[in-house]
């Protein structure tokens, strides 16, 4: 339902123009390849209740361009190791989304902040934390939050639209990534200095029943509950603008956005 919701709202939105990238859809071990594409029909794996399903997609609208990734598990028998890994990726996302930082710093200085939750378990991923998103331009562009190379083009200023997308990829098992688009906005700090933080532009549920809540600190729970509360409000308003009976979708959305 989560992927159906995203696709339905995208394609039927009044400002929708076209997709912004070729969707990356991967099941099970294929998701361990960060941008998996099937090369031929022989390797295709159907969605099932025993494996992860990772979807990375986006669209161009008259008022913005999107790039979003969600990791879902349709079955109820979720391995404890996967639940832990998924929770660590979520914590990495939240840790970055709640960071405040000085105007004009290079994105590479932020990358390690989000990896602490993973590093504590000896885990890591081999791509940058985020990239700039151009409106009807490149969906991947500067400035970014890189992890290996210092680039002069990655200076961060107010108004930049950028992704946060930590991940974890376990060969032969699964891949996990949680990606939202954010706008860099002014942050209020006691010193009154020029600092920035992240304002969400993506409002789509993050699957709750594959989270190990015992690993979360209160600040993670607060962020997730606040995010889902606003997601529910925004999406119900958007759905209400469309004709037809959407009661089943609303019911699912209310369950998906319930507090943890």
Q: Care to describe what's here?
A:
The chain is of the alpha+beta class. 28% of the residues lie in helices and 23% in strands. It has 5 helices and 14 strands. The strands form 5 sheets. It has a 4-stranded antiparallel sheet with strand order 7-14-13-10. Strands 1-4-5 form a 3-stranded antiparallel sheet, with no helix packed on it. It has a 3-stranded antiparallel sheet with strand order 2-3-6, with no helix packed on it. A hairpin with a 2-residue loop joins strand 4 (59-61) and strand 5. Helix 2 (80-97) packs antiparallel against helix 3 and helix 4 (218-240) runs antiparallel to helix 5 (247-256). The longest helix has 23 residues, at 218-240.
Instruction: Give the number of DSSP strands.
Output: 14
> Which strand order spans the largest sheet, edge to edge or round the barrel?
7-14-13-10
Overall pLDDT confidence: 90
Number of helices: 5
Give the helix/strand class: alpha+beta
Low-confidence stretches: none
Please outline what is shown here.
The protein has 260 residues and is an alpha+beta fold.
Q: Which features characterize this protein?
A:
260 residues; 28% helix; 3-stranded antiparallel beta sheet; alpha+beta
In terms of topology, how is this protein built?
Elements: H1 2-11, E1 16-19, E2 24-27, E3 52-57, E4 59-61, E5 64-65, E6 68-73, H2 80-97, E7 101-102, H3 108-119, E8 130-132, E9 141-145, E10 161-164, E11 167-170, E12 174-177, E13 180-187, E14 195-200, H4 218-240, H5 247-256
Antiparallel strand pairs: 1-4, 2-3, 3-6, 4-5, 7-14, 8-9, 10-13, 11-12, 13-14
